[in-house]
């Protein structure tokens, strides 16, 4: 009996040891899954030595059984199971939702039960809450504004602000100090005492590492009355050239711009004028007028005018003539095409001994008696005329001065002169002497004719 009992114990121990050796166990842990909402998710449970045991799936937080072996227990139509062999068991969830987020347990119905958990993370790409997000805004210059972008998603999105044009965002504190930044993080962007240079489009970008990131464009319009800057208020140009004048206008909303001449005429593009406008920014415009073939009639003032709903402003530019290469040079006084030609003809006349019709008057001899007679003051003659009883005109005493003679050297020691009056004392005496000689000659002719008749 003792030997038989001992044999049975040994057999039982061997069987128990073999049974322990072939108990089911997990070959690998379940991998956690992160899936965007609306996508499909699959958990895989790897076991070995399953034998006659079964595998089940349970939702860890609610303890709801999803499936046992090949059978789906839950009433959720999006849940299904599959296995490739006795060692690989799969749980499938289609079109996951936020409610699917959580832990999923793979169990083996041993005693005690064996289990392991895999977690499903359902992520949501960012999106904006439209009713809590700012739209396009209009504010007066110098005011304050709050730009808001509320975003949702999982994980919670981060909102970043940037300017669309790449310029810096100006942050101001309660003390008025300015801090320029290229970007700002936060759902609310506060702008205080805004200026016209802060006008433009602002982008709020929401991201949470779940593609795609989203952005919203908010236009900030800053209104102010027009302002005109004129680079040059006096513009000169030679006659016959094209001249351009310009005005720089800043206005928001966009102003109506036009030109008016000092005559009241509105300037429009024509064969005479080229009127243009060039946009420099959202609120800056460059007004230009090109006056073609500048003439005397174009000299004057030109007004550039800018007008919007907040006001009107104007500025003037004056055009004037300056000497230029197109200006005509008057011919020389004493003939010839130019002064060099006068000198040339004079030189030729001296060299050949012949007179030239283009010669300048000879240099006067200031020491001769004729000069004294012809070019001295006529005060004495005027005084003598006062005592002439035959004169019937009122007596006037004229204190005439000798003409100022300007001597200018031309070339080759040949002089020319000009007087500073229309009729001077020389012209007065020349005229009187010529009249006297003409009278004497005429009288002599009459007398000789009379005596000739008597003798005949």
Describe this structure in words.
This protein has 456 residues and is of the alpha+beta class. The protein contains five helices and 30 strands. Strands 11, 14, 17, 19, 20, 22, 25 and 26 form an eight-stranded mixed sheet that branches. A hairpin with a 4-residue loop joins strand 23 and strand 24 (266-267). The longest helix is centred in the C-terminal third of the chain and has 31 residues, at 425-455. It is rod-shaped and about 195 Å long. The model is unreliable at 332-431 (pLDDT under 50).
Could you list some keywords that capture this structure?
456 residues; 41% strand; 8-stranded mixed beta sheet; 7-stranded mixed beta sheet; 5 helices
Short description:
This protein has helices at 2-21, 339-352, 369-375, 379-386, 425-455; strands at 25-28, 33-36, 41-48, 55-59, 65-68, 71-72, 79-85, 88-93, 102-108, 114-128, 137-140, 145-148, 151-154, 158-163, 169-172, 178-181, 184-185, 188-191, 200-207, 214-229, 234-237, 243-252, 256-261, 266-267, 273-279, 284-291, 300-308, 311-321, 406-411, 414-418. It has 456 residues and is an alpha+beta fold.
């Amino acid at each position: 009996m003792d030997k038989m009992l001992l044999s049975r114990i040994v057999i039982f121990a061997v069987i128990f040891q073999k049974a322990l050796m072939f108990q089911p166990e997990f070959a690998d842990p379940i991998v956690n899954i992160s899936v965007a909402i609306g996508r499909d998710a699959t958990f895989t449970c790897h076991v070995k030595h399953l034998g006659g045991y079964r595998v089940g799936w349970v939702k860890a937080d609610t303890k709801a059984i999803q499936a046992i072996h090949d059978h789906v227990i839950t009433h959720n139509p999006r849940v299904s199971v599959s296995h490739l062999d006795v060692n690989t068991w799969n749980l499938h969830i289609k079109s996951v939702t936020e409610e699917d987020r959580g832990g999923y347990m793979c169990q083996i119905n041993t005693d005690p039960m064996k289990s392991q958990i895999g977690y499903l993370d359902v992520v949501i790409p960012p999106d904006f809450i439209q009713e809590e997000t700012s739209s396009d805004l209009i504010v007066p210059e110098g005011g304050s504004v709050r730009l808001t972008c509320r975003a949702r998603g999982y994980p919670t999105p981060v909102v970043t602000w940037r300017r669309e044009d790449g310029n810096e965002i100006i942050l101001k504190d309660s003390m008025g100090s300015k801090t320029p930044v290229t970007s700002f993080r936060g759902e609310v962007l506060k702008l205080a005492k805004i200026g016209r240079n802060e006008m433009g489009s602002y982008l709020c970008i929401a991201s949470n590492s779940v593609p795609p990131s989203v952005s919203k464009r908010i236009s900030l319009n800053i209104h102010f009355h027009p302002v005109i800057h004129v680079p040059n208020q006096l513009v000169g140009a030679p006659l016959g050239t094209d001249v351009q004048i310009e005005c720089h206008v800043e206005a928001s909303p966009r102003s109506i711009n036009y030109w008016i001449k000092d005559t009241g005429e509105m300037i429009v593009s024509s064969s005479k004028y080229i009127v243009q406008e060039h946009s420099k920014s959202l609120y800056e415009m460059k007004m230009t007028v090109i006056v073609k073939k500048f003439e005397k009639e174009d000299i004057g003032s030109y007004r550039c005018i800018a007008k919007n709903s907040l006001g009107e402003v104007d500025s003037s530019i004056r055009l004037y003539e300056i000497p230029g290469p197109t200006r005509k040079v008057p011919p020389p006084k004493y003939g010839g095409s130019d002064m060099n030609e006068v000198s040339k003809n004079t030189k030729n006349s001296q060299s050949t001994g012949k007179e030239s019709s283009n010669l300048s008057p000879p240099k006067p001899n200031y020491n001769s008696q004729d000069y004294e007679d012809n070019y001295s003051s006529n005060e004495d003659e005027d005084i003598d005329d006062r005592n002439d009883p035959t004169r019937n005109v009122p007596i006037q005493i004229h204190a005439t001065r000798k003409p100022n003679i300007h001597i200018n050297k031309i070339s080759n020691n040949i002089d020319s002169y000009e007087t500073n009056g229309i009729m001077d004392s020389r012209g007065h005496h020349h005229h009187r002497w010529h009249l006297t000689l003409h009278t004497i000659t005429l009288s002599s002719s009459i007398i000789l004719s009379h005596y000739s008749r008597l003798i005949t």
